[in-house]
Design goal:
The complex is a heterodimer of chains A (142) and B (404).
Chain A lengths: L21 H8 L3 E6 L5 E2 L14 E6 L3 E9 L13 E8 L4 E5 L13 E8 L5 E7 L2
Antiparallel strand pairs in A: 1-2, 1-3, 4-5, 4-7, 5-6, 7-8
Chain B lengths: L6 E8 L13 H16 L8 E5 L9 H9 L5 E5 L5 H14 L5 E6 L19 H5 L9 H5 L9 H15 L3 H15 L14 H6 L2 E3 L2 E2 L11 E7 H4 L7 E10 L15 H12 L8 E3 L5 H10 L8 H7 L15 H5 L5 H14 L13 E8 L4 E9 L1
Parallel strand pairs in B: 2-3, 2-4, 9-10
Antiparallel strand pairs in B: 1-7, 1-8, 4-7, 5-6, 8-11, 10-11
The chains are: A mainly beta (142), B alpha/beta (404).
């Protein structure tokens, strides 16, 4: 591998919505979680797609959900997963399974790293960025 | 269904793994050609007989038309050309594709290679400013607009490999129990074999289970010594017809069965973590070869992390789900042991030589079956089971190699 020039900055990568995914990010900005649901087979869908991953139907409808779920698995990263995330170490990286059954990549907040457990109920935290984008993080329920 | 066993691996070439490359840097095309020449010489086949090639995404002088560029560079006209995009499963994917092409009658001599040594520095040119390559910071994660990973995973820091494998390990132990010494023992046992492999980066550096568990935690529950060391390297092998293989220098190594399975890119969307796609690939490979896991003399299992090897032992059928920890505790995984696993040290012991890290498992399987493994040669060496793993347990391939 050749060694490249250092990047201009170590700014964090941010989501870049697409025409299909835009409603997901719009809802988060408004403090709501919306998921696609397939009109044909009933399957909940995440991440947003143009086609249902169970039946490839294109009849997907944005549907509000309460955003609650449980920790499916997690890791506490003691070394940054990439240089832009150095300020978040230890990174409390998690996969949350929403009540509807779909899973999301996220981080946990307001929790002691040692207290995180698989199966722990969590509720959504809307992390509004200065760029108008909102990330979906989670904290322990209650 | 499957192969007839009419294709054999007959020649190999492999560069030593080095943390700091000591040779002369060359272009990846040049590395490819040199590896091809060495593997063909090992097989005793002339370059003019090559009529097939399989390459990977590691040839960087071209982004498209890569197989044609290699054919042109090496002076070959080929009937079969593939560029494999399976990460750590690339080499095993190469093996069965080459064998299948030969059995279909498309070609007779196929060269497969992966490179992994540094290139010379490009001359500075103000007309062509060097651009930052995000792969250096984000590993194999896509940063392209419209990539699901770039949009829904990377912004949270779920990027590169460590965290994904750590999440597999976390869920595995949550379900089946927290014997972390089992994971550590995989690294320690394989280090015994690395100490019998002069090409291994950790040759001469044995470690214990306690050393592994005392190394710093990178991403819970994975420790530093459970994670591969990036190294330079490179490897190639030659596949040909069984008829042709009979007249060559080394024992022909028959591609007796294979399987391959892809299920996801990012573990967030894996259907049933911690179960892995090799479960299906292994069943197909063993079934096609007409053998069971009990019949193998050695396993060469992709081991980017300890947890990768542990899950592969379980899902390949050497023991049941959740029984891998006890299995590892009860067996000696070194080349001296009763369950020889990664007899070259694995990538944990040899070093991860880019995509060639995956190729190292194929090369070692061939070397052992051919009886050319030197100090670490196994007494029983007729049947090898070899796996590759790409992404984060995303795509796995398995082959059964047998001595003809």
């Amino acid at each position: 591998m050749t060694v490249p020039d250092a990047p201009a900055s170590l700014s964090k990568p941010r989501p870049e919505p697409t025409p299909v995914s835009q409603p997901f990010w719009d809802a988060l900005r408004d403090g709501r979680v919306e998921l696609q649901r397939c009109d044909d087979c009933g399957r909940w869908v995440h991440y947003p797609r143009s086609r249902c991953p169970a039946c490839l139907s294109d009849r997907l409808t944005w549907t509000p959900v309460d955003g609650t779920g449980v920790v499916y698995t997690f890791t506490v990263a003691e070394q940054p997963t990439a240089p832009p995330f150095a300020d978040e170490v230890p990174q409390l990286l998690a996969i949350v399974e929403l009540t509807e059954g779909v899973r999301v990549s996220t981080t946990l907040v307001d929790v002691d790293p040692g207290a995180i457990a698989i199966g722990m109920p969590v509720t959504p935290v809307f992390d509004h960025g200065a760029d108008g984008l909102t990330l979906l993080r989670f904290r322990p329920e209650g | 269904m499957g192969l007839r066993g009419d294709a054999c691996i007959v020649g190999i070439a492999e560069r030593a793994a080095e943390r700091k490359f000591t040779g002369t840097p060359t272009l990846t095309l040049e590395q490819w050609a040199a590896l091809a020449a060495d593997a063909l010489a090992d097989a005793g086949i002339a370059s003019s007989d090559v009529d097939g090639l399989v390459c990977a995404g590691d040839v960087v002088e071209a982004s498209l038309f890569v197989p044609a560029t290699i054919a042109e560079y090496c002076g070959w006209s080929v009937n079969f050309a593939e560029r494999i995009d399976l990460g750590g499963a690339t080499a095993v994917g190469m093996v069965w594709r080459a064998a299948a092409a030969i059995e279909l009658g498309l070609c007779e001599v196929v060269v497969c290679a992966t490179v992994g040594q540094p290139r010379p520095p490009r001359p500075e040119s103000p007309a062509r400013p060097r651009v930052f390559d995000p792969r250096v910071m984000y590993g194999a994660s896509s940063m392209e607009w419209g990539s699901p990973q770039a949009e829904f995973d990377v912004p949270y820091g779920n990027v590169a490999q460590n965290c994904g494998y750590a999440m597999y390990a976390q869920r595995y132990h949550d379900l089946y129990g927290w014997d972390e010494r089992a994971r550590a023992k995989i690294a320690a046992d394989q280090r015994v074999s690395a100490c019998a492999n002069p090409s291994a980066v950790f040759h001469g550096q044995p470690i214990t289970v306690d050393d592994v568990l005392a190394s710093r935690v990178i991403a819970t529950p994975l420790h530093l010594l459970e994670i591969v060391m990036p190294c330079s390297g490179g490897a190639a092998f030659v596949v040909t017809t069984a008829a042709r293989a009979r007249d060559l220098a080394h024992r022909p190594v028959t591609v007796a069965g294979f399987g391959e399975r892809l299920t996801h890119k990012t573990p967030t969307y894996a259907a049933e973590m911690p179960r892995t796609p090799v479960r299906d690939a292994a069943a197909r490979a063993f079934g096609a070869a007409g053998i069971t896991p009990r019949d193998v003399d050695m396993v060469q299992l992709y081991d980017c992390y300890t947890i990768t090897a542990l899950l592969t032992i379980e899902d390949s059928g050497f023991c049941g789900a959740g029984e891998g920890m006890a299995f590892v505790a009860e067996h000696d995984l070194s080349y001296r042991g009763d369950f020889p696993c990664n007899t070259h040290g694995g990538q944990l012991g040899m070093g991860q030589t880019g995509l060639s890290g995956g190729t190292s498992h194929v090369i070692e399987g061939v070397r052992q079956v051919q009886g050319r493994a030197g100090d670490r040669q196994l007494a029983r060496h007729d049947v090898a089971y070899v796996t590759g793993t790409g992404g984060v347990m995303s795509e796995q391939a398995a082959v059964v190699l047998t001595g003809a």
